[in-house]
Amino acid sequence: MPITQLKINGVRNLTNVELELSEGFNFFYGENGSGKTSLLEAISLLAHGRSFRTVNYRQLIQHEQPHMSVFAEVAQQSGIASKVGVLRPQRGQSTFKIDGSPVYSSASLASLLPLQVINSKSFDLLDGPRKVRRGMFDWLVFHVKHEFSVLWRDYTKAVKQRNSLLRRDKISGYELAPWDIELNRLGISIDALRQECLQPFLDKVDTLIPDINLPKEYRVDIEYQRGWTEGQTLSEALTESYAKDRKYGYTTCGAHKSELKVLINKQAAAEVLSRGQQKSLIAAFMFAELQIFQQLMNKPSVLLIDDLPAELDQQHIQCLANWLLDLDTQVFVTGIYAEDMDRLKNKMNNKPCKVFHVKHGEINECNP
Ligand SMILES: Nc1ncnc2c1ncn2[C@@H]1O[C@H](COP(=O)(O)OP(=O)(O)OP(=O)(O)O)[C@@H](O)[C@H]1O
Ligand SMILES: [Mg+2]
C-alpha cells in the first residue's frame, strides 16, 4: 500500500487538496482543465523530484504563488509509514524530505516510490529519440539492480569529463586515455546489468502482446543494442571513434548510446501501428516492468495512467483492465467521463477502489 495520504498545495490549479487514497485503484474523472493531470504531476514531483511534462517545474507552481508543495504518507513493508515531502519555491532551492531529513538525490526518492507513468508523452517511446526507450528500460534496471544507480552516475560524470576534453582546442589521446579506461570499466558493467534484465523483460512482454490483438502477420521484435560495436571492448570502440568524437565534440559510442529498437516486421513500430495499438504496446512495456519489479523486489510501486480511455476502444480498455488486475501496484487512473471510470471500477472485481470527482481544482471522493 504505497501512498495512503496526499496533500497538494499550489500545483497548477490545485490550491489545497487533501486525499485519503485507496491502496488499490484510484479513479479520477472531470472535465477538461479540471486538474486531473495536475494531480498526477504532483505525484510525479514526489517520486522523481520533477514533472513528467515539463523540464521547467516552475510552470507547475500556481500562478501568483511563491511555492508549491506536495506531501505524502507512503506505507512501507515494515508497516511504518514514511513521510515524503517536497517544497519548490519560485526562486531558490527546492527541499525534499523523507521523514523530516533532507534528501539530495532523486535516486532516493525514486527508490522510495517506484513510479511508472502512461500519458500522452508515452508515445515518444515509439517515435521519440532512443534515450526515451533507454530511460524506459533503465527504469527496470535501476529498480531491480542496486549497483546500477552508482554505476550510471559515475558513468555519466565520466562522459561529461571526456566531452569537455573533446571540446578543447588541443588534446592528445594521452589525456583521454584515463577516461576511456573508466568508461570501459563502467560501460561494460552497465551493459551486463542491462543484459541480465533484458530476457525477463522480453519474455514478459511476449506474454502480454497477444492480448493486444494485433494483426496475425505482425511480428514484434525488440532489439537491444548496447551502444558500441559487438566484438569490441568499449575502449577499442572509443579509440576508433576518436576522430569522429573530436569533430562532434562529444562521445558518440558507449552505454549512453544504447538503444532498444521496437520493430514490427522489421519496420519501426511507430510507422506501422495505429495510435491505439501503440498505446497498448507501450502499456505492455510498463506492465511487464512492473510485474518483474513486483516479483523480484516484493516492494510497493505506483502506476499513473492519464486519460486511460483516450485512443482506446472497449476491447483495448478491457485488455488494460485485465493487466491492471494482475498487478499488485497502486494505480491512479484519470478520464473525462464518470461512466468510463465507473465501468473500469466495476471491472476491478473486489479489489479496493475509490472514485474521485475533479472539478475546478477541487477533488472529492464519490460515495465515500
Ligand atoms: N501555473 C498554473 N497555475 C494555475 N493554473 C494553471 C497553471 N498551469 C496550468 N493551469 C491550469 O490548470 C488547469 C488544470 O489543468 P490540467 O492539465 O490538470 O487539466 P486536466 O483535468 O488534466 O484537463 P484535460 O482533461 O484537458 O487533460 C487548467 O485550466 C490549466 O490551464
Ligand atoms: Mg489532462
From TrEMBL:
Entry keyword Cytoplasm: yes
PROSITE patterns given in the database record: RECF_2 (PS00618)
Keywords: ATP-binding, Cytoplasm, DNA damage, DNA repair, DNA replication, DNA-binding, Nucleotide-binding, SOS response
A single cellular component GO annotation: cytoplasm
Biological-process GO terms, alphabetical: DNA replication; DNA synthesis involved in DNA repair; double-strand break repair; SOS response
GO MF assignments: ATP binding; single-stranded DNA binding
Domain RecF/RecN/SMC N-terminal: 3-360
Pfam assignment, any one: SMC_N
InterPro entries per record: DNA-binding_RecF, DNA-binding_RecF_CS, P-loop_NTPase, RecF/RecN/SMC_N, RecF_2
Subcellular location: Cytoplasm
Top-level taxon of the source organism: Bacteria
Keyword flag ATP-binding: yes
Residues the entry annotates as binding ATP: 30-37
Summary of the function given for this chain in its UniProt record: The RecF protein is involved in DNA metabolism; it is required for DNA replication and normal SOS inducibility. RecF binds preferentially to single-stranded, linear DNA. It also seems to bind ATP.
Sequence similarity: Belongs to the RecF family.
HAMAP family xref list: RecF (MF_00365)
Protein name: DNA replication and repair protein RecF
Natural source organism: Marinagarivorans cellulosilyticus
